[in-house]
Amino acid sequence: MHPIFEVRRAAAAGRVLHAGGECVSIRHMIPSVIEMIRALVAMPSASSFDPSRDQGNRGVVNLLASWLDDLDCSVKVQRLEGHPDRANVVATLGSGEGGLVLSGHSDTVGCEEGWSHDPYVVTEDAGRLYGLGIADMKAFFAIAIEAMRKADRTKLVSPVILVATADEECAMLGARRLAAERQVQGRWAVIGEPTGWSPVRMHKGMMMESIVLRGRAAHSSVPANGNSALEGMVLAAQALIRWREQLQIDYRDTEFEVPFPTLNLGTIRGGDHPNRVCAECEMQVDLRPLPGMSVSEARATLHATVREAVEGRGLQLNMTSMYPGTEPMMTSSASQLVQTAEQLTGERAGSAAYGTEAPHFASLGFDTLLLGPGDIAQAHRPDEYLSVDRIGKGIDLLGGMIRRLCTSEP
Description:
Blueprint: H1 6-12, E1 15-17, E2 23-25, H2 33-42, H3 58-70, E3 74-80, E4 83-93, E5 100-105, E6 123-125, E7 128-130, H4 134-150, E8 160-165, H5 173-180, E9 188-191, E10 200-203, E11 206-214, H6 229-250, E12 262-270, E13 280-288, H7 295-310, E14 316-326, E15 329-330, H8 336-345, E16 350-352, H9 358-362, E17 367-370, E18 385-387, H10 389-406
Parallel strand pairs: 5-8, 5-9, 9-17, 10-16
Antiparallel strand pairs: 1-2, 3-4, 4-8, 6-7, 7-18, 10-15, 11-13, 11-14, 12-13
Helix pairs in contact: 2-4, 4-10, 6-7, 8-10
């Protein structure tokens, strides 16, 4: 069986396939929004580069696929080659030209210590719902499904497509696969990242690089017998700081809270004892380029800057990308998608400093926008929560976008 049609064919028989191959009945009424949120949070789906900590997202995929199948969507599951526990979901309601994609990532970061509540049991306290991934970004799926359920499908002239991706918290393999195989069609894409339901039409890119220098160890009393990789890395760091200063002169955009590219020298590791010349040193850096900058060009300049800094010192240099990189994103303020969101929210579309999957949809020709119920301040931290009042507001907001962009209603 072709993996794209795994869920659709199983659903036709009233079943959905789990990662282990077992089948469970899915012919039931779609739960309430709160119950959907509870079920999604209860399903662990942390992504990690460490295989022992990676939980996959198939449980979340199966839940979403079952609800969307009951909504009479055309449901596809796309398995990621080499990652049996990871998959994307693409579910289409209606047909026609164009279409609105409501997309989010179905994975979370790992669960850290420090929670006051059970991270996998949604707990309501003082108008807040606590749970791992509830803001970033499982609640968005439940809200989007409810908005789709309430839509008058007799008036749909363009489809509404719900997309759930895998692996966003690591290398964005799910979104990259969707884009590479052009598995999603449409005109507009709303990415439900945490924005507090304020529209965001642009964000910075992101890249992470590892720089490794290898020299020669020696006793510190006769340093000439060695070649210090640590001292070479100091020169590389100084060169990168000078380049950062130039970047901040050359590129500025006051639409961003931090109006210039940022370059963070995040880690440095080298040497094992004060009385030994350091033979190997690694530095890891993070660069956030502005819209208008290219990740590949920035990477090339970073590499050239480091090579020039250590040239002639007899050190072995190795530079690798820790992460493929996310391009910056910017959608025109004149876009119908942006203007619709601004009209419905009463807010001017702004910017974000973090990267998302939006550039992968933009590469397919979509106008893209970030718009979700959570707050970015709640992401990736213990006691992550979502304000209860964001749920009803979101159903109305996404419902309004569906009506304006996908139906024949005026």
